[in-house]
Give the backbone structure.
Amino acid sequence: MHRDLSECITVVIPAKNEEKGLEFTLKELSELGFNDVIVVDGHSTDNTVNVARKYGALVIEQPGDGKADAVYYGLRLVKKPYVLIIDGDGTYDPSYIRPMVTKAINDDLDEVLGARTWGRENIPLINRFGNRILTSLFNVMFGTTLSDVLTGMYLLRTSMAKAIIPSTRGFSVEVDIASQVASMGKIGEVPVKYRKRIGDPKLRWTHGISIGIDIIKLMARFNPLLILALLASLLMVPGIVLTIYVASQLIVNHVNHFIWGIIAFQLDTTGLLGILISLTTLMIKRMEYRLIRLFTKRETECTPV
């Protein structure tokens, strides 16, 4: 069905005390023709709600607390084929929405991330470092080649979005959604520009630790054998240390620590088996994801005009 892409998209903005950034974002969305906007308010104490209503957005007060609750509550209200989640702080340029939905349609993707390729100097250094580590960890687990899994601007096929089961809270929502999409469907990304934030930042370095813990929990959920195998592989560390000690004692002091040698051998072999099992489970999981993506075809009501 050929129609303007703006008719296929509902924009969901989780916001809490973002009156300045939200006005900037809503003004840009309106100028670009995206008028189906839902602002999920996180119990703001400033003028956020009035700003949202001024631009004709549907304002919904979230029942819980935190970004994840806001996003998942907003997704329940979407009826159009695609939903675009975007932070309301002015950091993301809505002009990239059309390239994102075009890629989703042309490549039959269930999620398209707006990868912050340009303007990375506007991301604090510690956040950039943490993002790289967490994205790499995600790629290893799910067999993806993403560059920015923590982006606050991403497009979802609505049918996929409604199938997602919330399993994390707070700022881990992006990883939670991406992990479930990667395990059930297809995910990609489009380079976008990241701008300086309007207002005070809410993300702290401690949130990065929480997100990392949530990624490990998601790994345990989708591939528990991998976690067990990785834990077993850690036995190689004391095994190698003990092996070096036993060998050095035998060579230098001509002392044969027979029992310690046996223990070191057991630790080394168990750790090596853990590594081999980890690699095997990753290969099997990646093959499973590829098969799901290969044989899953979803129709969409939208095609680029």
Observations:
- Residues 258-295 form the longest helix (38 residues).
- DSSP finds eleven helices and seven strands in the chain.
- Residues 224-295 form one domain.
- The chain has two domains: 5-222, 224-295.
